């Protein structure tokens, strides 16, 4: 009999016991014989298994769970091509700081080098894009290895981990120490560096806060609001920082970012890297305060005026408690509000455009009418999804998913699966370019078969928009940038067990979207958009 301090069973049962202890609640996978014991353990205990048609979708689904629920997401992949097919998902999770654990099968160690089926050493491939990667050598090591991997994944700066289990290890019986309760360390910030940041922001005449995904991932949304309100600083957001302040909040801004960044004297970037989305941290004469969740996230290519590193809740709460001299930012905020309102008026005209072919802006104008405040919107595309960053304004935190700085297409169906598992009763809407549809649309079958309804809106302009127009401008011609015009992506989803329709006129958009959200199955609205209407590369999706 197993004691409270010991557990026994085959490798799958030992792994699942440790996974449960760390809050994992479901498994995303594509069936493979190397990992059958994990399926056996899950099946016998009622642990949900959700399967996909391509391994990258399993990892993206696990990442969506990790992002939305701020807990580990699990993908189980078979050996060899199962793992290599999942590496794009692992890499996205690495760039996004998402605590995903991928467990891979592995050819048997006792026969290593003899040419077993799918025999390859995964670790050199995954180590550069994970926080922790290991091969487990015996059954009794499995719970401890799972605990170590998940602790690494959950420790700031968060990110993915990988374990592979050789065939004889996962199939054999063993007993091992039961997993202890998770003990994730909290990174304490340097109080002097926090005080320096607070003084710079409070004493600035024209300060700005830009809040990114780690604010949500670190459960620091309330602390961000408190800091912004106490210091009276306008807030712009990117990634999963979107919705941290609702659009109606007096300090929430989105449309006037260019104006703000050109005029600000102090820019506090919180929980997001100083990468291409933020001019690599070069804001002219403005001083930069870079607030990150771990020292490893400090920018190495610029020297901020202050760079507190640690738990974002602690840092932001300390900013709110700052008792030094504070400037009155009312005039600065009022000037930004004028620019914001003017931009909103321009956007409203574009979102109401009656043109045929349909302009992408009109698609988002109609979506704004039907999306609930707590709807989860998912961006998977380039040109078409760039418009989403401009025209959609998430009203609640944790309701926006995009590929992040790695920019990997194909996230859509996996993210949709993870979002639907997370929120069975909310609207889930995937915004997909017709190029991106080629990466993952087959997994509409996975959604339909497992009763996971989502709405998929495809902006179908028949081109790779972010490539065709720039290439033509550079060379006077373009190649490898055209797709079949007016392709019936809705017909693909119908054939896979869902439903859908094609929309060619702006006046048809509203009724089509209403039908989609009422359908109760995966439903694709295939919108024929104007190929001449391309979004500039300086996207507000950032």
State the gist of this model:
Helices cover 39% and strands 16% of the residues. The protein is α/β, with parallel strands linked by helices.
Question: How would you explain this protein's 3D organization?
Answer:
This is Acetolactate synthase. One of its GO terms (cellular component) is acetolactate synthase complex. The chain is of the alpha/beta class and 542 residues long. It folds into three domains: 6-177, 3-Layer(aba) Sandwich (Rossmann fold), CATH 3.40.50.970; 191-336, Rossmann fold (3-Layer(aba) Sandwich), CATH 3.40.50.1220; 353-528, Thiamin diphosphate (ThDP)-binding fold, Pyr/PP domains (Rossmann fold, 3-Layer(aba) Sandwich), CATH 3.40.50. It is built from 22 helices and 18 strands. It has helices spanning 11-21, 36-45, 55-69, 81-85, 87-96, 123-126, 142-154, 167-171, 191-203, 213-217, 221-231, 257-263, 312-320, 330-351, 360-370, 383-391, 412-422, 434-440, 444-449, 465-475, 489-495, 509-518; strands at residues 6-10, 27-29, 49-51, 73-77, 100-106, 132-135, 161-166, 173-177, 207-211, 235-237, 266-270, 287-291, 376-380, 400-401, 428-433, 455-460, 499-503, 523-528. Strands 3-2-4-5-7-6 form a six-stranded parallel β-sheet. Strand 2, helix 2 (36-45) and strand 3 (49-51) form a beta-alpha-beta unit. Helix 9 (191-203) crosses helix 13 (312-320). The longest helix has 22 residues, at 330-351. It starts with 5 loop residues before the first strand and ends in a 14-residue tail after the last strand.
């Amino acid at each position: 009999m197993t004691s409270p301090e010991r557990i026994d069973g085959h490798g799958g049962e030992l792994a699942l016991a440790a996974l449960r202890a760390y809050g994992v609640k479901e498994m995303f996978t594509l069936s493979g014989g190397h990992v059958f014991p994990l399926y056996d353990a899950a099946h016998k205990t009622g642990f949900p298994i959700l399967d996909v048609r391509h391994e990258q979708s399993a990892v993206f689904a696990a990442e969506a769970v990790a992002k939305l629920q701020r807990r580990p997401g699990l993908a189980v992949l078979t050996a060899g091509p199962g793992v290599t097919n999942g590496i794009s998902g692992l890499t996205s999770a690495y760039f996004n700081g998402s605590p995903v654990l991928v467990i891979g099968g592995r050819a048997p160690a006792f026969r290593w080098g003899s040419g077993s089926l799918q025999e390859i050493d995964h670790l050199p491939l995954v180590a550069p894009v994970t926080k922790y990667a290991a091969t487990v050598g015996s059954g009794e090591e499995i719970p401890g290895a799972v605990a170590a991997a998940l602790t690494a994944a959950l420790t700031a700066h968060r990110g993915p981990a990988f374990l592979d289990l050789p065939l004889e290890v996962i199939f054999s019986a063993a007993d091992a120490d039961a997993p202890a309760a998770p003990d994730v360390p909290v990174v304490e910030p340097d109080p002097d560096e926090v005080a320096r940041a607070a003084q710079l922001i409070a004493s600035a005449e024209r300060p700005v806060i830009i809040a990114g995904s780690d604010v949500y991932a670190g459960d620091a949304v309330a602390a961000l609001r408190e800091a912004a309100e106490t210091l009276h600083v306008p807030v712009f957001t990117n990634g999963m920082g979107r919705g941290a302040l609702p659009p109606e909040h007096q300090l929430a801004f989105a449309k006037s970012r260019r104006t703000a960044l050109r005029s600000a004297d102090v820019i506090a970037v919180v929980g997001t890297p100083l990468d291409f989305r933020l001019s690599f941290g070069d804001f002219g004469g403005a001083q930069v305060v870079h607030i990150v969740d771990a020292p490893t996230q400090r920018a190495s290519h610029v020297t901020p005026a202050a760079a507190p590193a640690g738990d974002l809740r602690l840092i932001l709460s300390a900013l709110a408690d700052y008792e030094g001299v504070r400037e009155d930012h009312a005039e600065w905020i009022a000037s930004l509000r004028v620019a914001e309102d003017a931009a909103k008026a321009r956007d409203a005209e574009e979102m109401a455009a009656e043109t045929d072919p349909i302009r992408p802006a009109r698609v988002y104008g109609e979506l704004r009418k039907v999306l609930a405040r707590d709807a989860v919107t998912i961006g998977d595309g380039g040109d078409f999804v760039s418009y989403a960053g401009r025209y959609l304004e998430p009203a609640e935190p944790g309701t926006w998913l995009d590929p992040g700085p790695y920019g990997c297409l194909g996230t859509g169906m996996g993210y949709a699966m993870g979002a639907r598992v997370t929120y069975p009763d909310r609207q889930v809407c995937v915004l997909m370019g017709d190029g991106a549809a080629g990466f993952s649309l087959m997994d509409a079958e996975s959604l339909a078969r497992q009763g996971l309804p989502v709405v998929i809106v495809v902006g179908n302009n028949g081109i790779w928009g972010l490539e065709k127009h720039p290439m033509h401008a550079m060379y006077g011609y373009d190649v490898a940038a055209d797709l079949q015009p007016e392709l019936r992506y809705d017909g693909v989803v119908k054939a896979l067990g869902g439903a859908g329709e094609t929309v060619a006129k702006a006046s048809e958009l509203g009724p089509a979207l209403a039908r989609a959200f009422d359908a109760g199955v995966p439903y694709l609205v295939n919108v024929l958009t104007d190929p001449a209407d391309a979004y500039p590369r300086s996207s507000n999706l950032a």
